[in-house]
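Question: Now follow the chain.
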Amino acid sequence: MFCPNCGAQLPDGAAFCSVCGQPQQNARPAYQQPQQNYQQPQQNYQQPYYQQPQQNYQQPYYQPQQNYRQPVYQQLPMKWHKFLCYFCLWLSAVLNIVAGIQYLNGDARLVDVYVPELETPNGVYGIFAILIGILCAVTAILLLKFKKNGPRILHFTLLNSAVGTVVIMVWEALILSGYGADATVLYVSAGITLVASLIVIALNKTYYNKRAHLFVR
């Protein structure tokens, strides 16, 4: 407020002027601009930090099952398999069938004329050789098509061929021994044939056991 006498600024509600001593009954309060005690509210929030959602999944690794036979020759060496299927078995099939026909016709051994008892084992061997020849051809087809039983049929064919040949040779050796002939060569040949055949069967079994997963058809 201001003093009406001297114009001095006085505190509001003062009874007397502190300058001139004039009573302040009709004094008017000094105009003061109201203080703006307003504080703009602080924005105490943080703008959210946008993070791209993490893709916590792994893209599945798709590996197609290979049901075809193309990669077979790339994964494991298959040279012996090819040689066996395209050459050995087919050659054995042809030779056995031709030999079997000759034995049945009696043209294979002229000794039958001098030892008639040999005609029976030679005839049996002729039939046996033809059957082995057919079995060799079937085995080659099964192996080429990667049939599940292909290796088993191969072992069966090799074993029967060896056993049948040895039996016929021993049979003929016994007949010749009855005539006083020296059949040592036949016995030795039978033993060598049996041992060699067992070795071949064991090697083929080991070879195809390592590739058993390829024969699934």
Remarks:
- Confidence is low (pLDDT under 50) at residues 67-74.
